[in-house]
Design brief:
By secondary structure, the protein is an alpha+beta fold. It contains 8 helices and 15 strands. The strands form 2 sheets. Strands 1, 2, 3, 4, 5, 6, 7 and 8 form an 8-stranded antiparallel beta sheet that branches. It has a 7-stranded antiparallel beta sheet with strand order 9-10-11-15-14-13-12, sandwiched between helices.
Length: about 425
């Protein structure tokens, strides 16, 4: 094998060694490096100083979107759709249409017939899918803005920390996002809210929320589902309780929350004073709460009182039903009550008996108890004892012992439990 050291080099390969770099090349290289450094510094400075004006909204750019579409009297998609109602849930009220664009009056020379143009209201009626004219309406109330009809919340001995905020069904979610649907299910109308501080200036404050529903029974409904089971009854509001951080009650068609910022004695005192003042200022109205007032007070668990507006116990004939848990002779019972007309109560009792006879077990009529028609039924291993007397329909459900359940119901019907 030949020695590599003695192998002759290829004649076509030339050795290249660059010893000298011209001055022009050195200057050019330095300039490129300096330019790259300058660009890096410029990018760092621009990124460090953000200009919000680059991304700010220019309202003037949106003016064209508010103009009427040529040849159309309305914009598509402006009419609110009707929400779907679920079982046992009251549908939300329709949002009024307030976004209808005004219809411009078309001059006679621009009409196809060349005759007298229709007035704007008739033109709107002719193009409306429902065939009726819509009058102009004021825009929806902006979230948190004062209402022209709502009075400001005032509390003696407290300093307001701002104006009274007002929220409508359309804007409620902006204040209590996530909880708004439950309020809308009970036909929420308006929320007034305001914060107050102590005059002493301790930094403590209370928040007042006054939810107005369409009726006292719906106000009780939202109050009942938000009730704190550990709350203590109030002596100034029958439908109310106090918690660790405030006071909560139903008065008339309003559900009121007074929440303290802390548990300092002075803050809680201010919160109680505010709650008492509001309870006196809101008119007392118990319309629709007859069944609630007829629930016996003896043995009741106050935190268990519930209200179901429709389809109570899954039955379409049970509406506006109040229900509570009781302790009687050492045993637990669930008692429900509905108050309606005598005719509707009698029909609901018959429908309930027929349902209980068909599904899951047996049902039988019992002798009258204190003038009440009674039946008992066993369904899926549990018992119910149901009565109808006049305008009342009620009874015991989900009982383990039918004899004990009948004794409990008899005590109620005979007035032994009040």
């Amino acid at each position: 094998m030949p020695d590599p050291a003695q192998t002759p080099s290829r004649p076509d390969r030339k050795a290249f060694k660059r010893i000298n770099v011209s001055r022009a090349e050195r200057i050019t290289s330095l300039a490129i490096v300096a330019l790259l450094a300058a660009l890096g510094i410029a990018v760092w400075v621009q990124g460090r100083n953000f200009d919000p004006g680059l991304y700010s909204l220019r309202p003037e750019a949106l003016k064209s979107t508010g103009l009427a579409v040529e040849g159309k009297s309305v914009n598509q998609g402006e009419r609110a759709s009707r929400p779907i109602s679920g079982m046992g849930i009251l549908p939300m009220r329709e949002v009024p249409n307030t976004g209808r664009m005004p219809v411009p009056q078309i001059p006679a020379e621009e009409t196809e017939s060349g005759g007298t143009p229709m007035p704007p209201d008739q033109a709107a009626a002719s193009e409306s899918p429902e065939g009726y004219a819509e009058t102009s309406a004021s825009p929806p109330l902006a979230a948190g803005s004062p209402s022209s009809k709502a009075k400001p919340i005032e509390l003696p001995g407290a300093q307001p920390m701002g104006e009274t905020e007002v929220y409508s069904p359309e804007t409620l979610y902006e204040k209590i996002n996530g909880r708004a649907p439950a309020y809308l299910d009970f036909r929420f109308q308006e929320l007034r809210t305001r914060s107050f501080s102590e005059l002493a200036g301790t930094g403590s404050y209370v928040d007042v929320y006054e939810y107005r529903m369409d009726s006292p029974v719906n106000a009780f409904g939202i109050f009942a589902i938000e009730r704190d089971p550990d709350g203590k009854p109030l002596d100034f509001a029958p439908d109310g309780y106090s918690g660790e951080m405030g006071f909560f009650f139903r008065q008339g068609n309003c559900y009121v929350q007074v929440i303290a910022s802390d548990q300092k004695p002075g803050t809680l005192k201010l919160a109680r004073s505010a709650a008492e003042h509001l309870a006196k200022s809101i008119p007392a109205d118990d319309t629709g709460l007859n069944a609630r007032r007829r629930l016996p007070a003896q043995g009741i668990a106050p935190d268990s009182i519930a209200f179901t507006q429709d389809n109570a116990q899954g039955q379409s004939f049970l509406k506006d039903v109040f229900q509570a848990n009781y302790t009687f002779d050492g045993k637990k019972y669930t008692f429900f009550l509905m108050v309606t007309t005598p005719e509707a109560a009698a029909k609901a009792w018959a429908d309930y008996l027929a349902f209980s006879s068909r599904y899951g077990g047996t049902a039988e009529a019992l002798p009258e108890i204190a003038g009440a028609t009674v039946f008992q039924a066993q369904n899926f291993g549990k018992w119910k004892v149901v009565y109808q007397r006049g305008e009342e329909l009620g009874g015991v459900i989900d009982a383990q012992d039918p004899v004990a359940a009948r004794a409990f119901l008899e005590a109620i019907l005979q007035g032994k439990l009040r």
